[in-house]
Amino acid sequence: MRLISWNVNGLRAVLKKGFEDIVKEQDADFFCIQETKMQEGQAVVDLPEYREFYCYAERKGYSGTAIFAKKEPVSVQYNFGEHDDEGRGIILEYDNFYLINVYVPNAQEKLKRIDYRMKWEDDIRLFLKELSAKKPVIMCGDLNVAHEEIDLKNPGSNRGNAGFSDEERGKFGELLDSGFVDTFRYLYPDTEGAYSWWSYRFNARKNNAGWRIDYFLVSDDIKEKIKEAKIHSEIMGSDHCPVELEIEL
Fold first, then answer.
1. Other beta carbons less than 10 A from residue 143's beta carbon
2. What's the pLDDT score for residue 126?
3. Active site residues per annotation
4. Which one, 26, 72, 87, 213, has least CB within 10 Å?
5. The whole model's pTM is what?
């Protein structure tokens, strides 16, 4: 089973850059996207092989998630708990696993949204714990944190900034400790220069001055089933690139 996650930085924009062709070419079982930045009916996606699930933010042109799935789920849930107005999560239930696609809130400049971010982290960790007590969980998305120094090009100058603050890194560690595995680092613990997001400024992508903030996490009890984890830095169209998980479920 192959799954892909991509922060597209606007679905309407990436549709003009060959999004449908990319999805067809990759031919994954699941294609999860974040930052759709649209309301219902603002884009038409021609992917007849896939069922489409969208979660919209109340605020226009902001946030939003979607999943394109080849297989019909048992159930679908949009958002979780009190976090229900920014379109940040979709949960698909299947017979033998849950798939969760999330767009984690950015802590923003000078960490002005760090309190909400911490609340989100605590709430989703508890939510995932409840789900994983029932069946294994696969979670993907833009998690807006580089966990360790190896996960960004310039850790020294970014320490304390949004995405690399002690608070955010600590909460990510708590999430892993609660029973989840970072699939890329599980297979490639020492690989450097593996990034999924680059600033549009300073020729960052050309110079590979990036951050790895897009992830697939899986429940500890299915980590042995991980077959491959990839970062598709060759695929353009957004300031992020797609990440992939291949798992035998």
1. 25
2. 96
3. 103, 142
4. 72
5. 0.97
